[in-house]
Amino acid sequence: MDYKKTIKEAQIIHLVITGVLVLIYVFLGDLTVEMFKIPEITSDDYFFIAIPIVAFFLGNYLYRRQVQSTDEKLSIEKKCEVFKTATIMRLAILEGAALVILFLAPNLVFFGALIVLNVVMMRPTEGQFQKDFD
């Protein structure tokens, strides 16, 4: 199997996850311009503010760990499968955090929108694959 096909599959999966997340935020979130301003933060909100931060670092940590634990002797196709799996795992963690913010702390939708923006910017590319596995 051509490794470019696997990267294309990862890009399609990313597009679907991103699209669904954006649609959920648009249609299920009661979004207004006011909600995208940085809210007043109370002590009750600290837990929900920690969620996107933890999700970001946890997703990146698990991604790096999976990529770094890959045997260098594996074929490029097998490395691509690891890349695709690690990418999906990282995106799923961020998607979960964004949904938790949207449904459990809608007053903090600003932070959820930052997660969505981060997910949009994490599009897997051939260059990223080469950088991570070379």
Give the SSE layout.
Elements: H1 3-27, H2 46-68, H3 76-104, H4 109-121, H5 126-133
Helix pairs in contact: 1-3, 1-4, 2-3, 3-4
Description:
- The protein has 134 residues and is an all-alpha fold.
- The protein has one domain.
- The protein has helices at residues 3-27, 46-68, 76-104, 109-121, 126-133.
- α1 packs parallel to α3 (76-104), α1 runs antiparallel to α4 (109-121) and α2 runs antiparallel to α3 (76-104).
- The protein starts with a helix and ends with a helix.
- It comes from Brumimicrobium aurantiacum.
- Keywords: Membrane, Transmembrane, Transmembrane helix.
* Overall average pLDDT: 89
Structural class: mainly alpha
Unreliable runs, pLDDT <50, ≥5 residues? none
Q: How many strand elements?
A: 0
- Quick one: biggest sheet? none
Task: Indicate the proportion of strand residues.
Answer: under 5%
Q: Please tell me how large the radius of gyration is.
A: 17 Å
Shape: elongated
Question: What would a concise description of this structure say?
Answer:
Keywords: Membrane, Transmembrane, Transmembrane helix. With 134 residues, this protein is an all-alpha fold.
List keywords for this structure.
MFS transporter; mainly alpha; membrane; transmembrane; transmembrane helix
